[in-house]
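Q: Here's a chain of 87 amino acids. Please give me its 3D structure as tokens.
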Amino acid sequence: MTTLPPPKVKKAPEDSLESKVYSMVETFKEYIPTPNDRNRLSYCLFKYLNGEGDAPKILLKTSKINYEGISKEELAKKLDEELLKIK
């Protein structure tokens, strides 16, 4: 039995909405230390900006993001402020 290589990943352009959201969430590395949690949050926020998801305050609760060193309300407020800059 052989192991196949992983599928190739196409990177989104730097000026795309998706790249901006993922970059913005990476700035919260000190509050969200787990890379998978940051990726999950980025995806949920991207869906939110496209009108398909919930607001950051709801996302932090429903997607079970692990955060530390900040309250849920403060983190949601900071995420809202950063999302306004992206829109």
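Q: Can you summarize the key feature?
A: The chain has a mean pLDDT of 92.
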